[in-house]
Specification:
alpha+beta, Aminopeptidase, five-stranded mixed sheet, 5 strands, 33% helix, globular, acyltransferase, AcTrfase_GNAT_prd
Length: 157
Amino acid sequence: MEFKIRLAKKSDMPAVLDLINELAAFEKEPNAVEVTVDHLEKYGFSEHALFKCFVAETNDEIVGMALFYPRFSTWKGETIHLEDLIVKEKHRGKGIGKALLKAVIMYAQRHEIKRVEWVVLDWNTSAIKFYENYGAIVHKEWRTVQLNEKEIRNFKA
């Protein structure tokens, strides 16, 4: 199967949202996605876009994506956070995930980014193996910390 990797266009956002929803279902959070196509279009393609996205396309169908955004590390400088990398289930095992990850890494190289980081669920052993096969370090001692909308609203100093 042939596929190509390219930067996403605004018109790809419905397919990107479908992939986000597929990932949420896989991660056992099928009702957690609140973002809409309008959000993706607004925050990905405005004058001050907040993210970039590579898509994998075969036969005019978007079958995978890697969405990432800039961050800043007080230790390293400019970094990238890879928010999601997903390939449709029926297209896995064909090199598409590797090609998407490579696209992000090559972007980082071209832009002299000091680090690419992301999170992976500890039970997703196939993803952990996939990332480790390409030299990624999976830190077991770091914990993701979040304040969600409710906690932010109710925060008292």
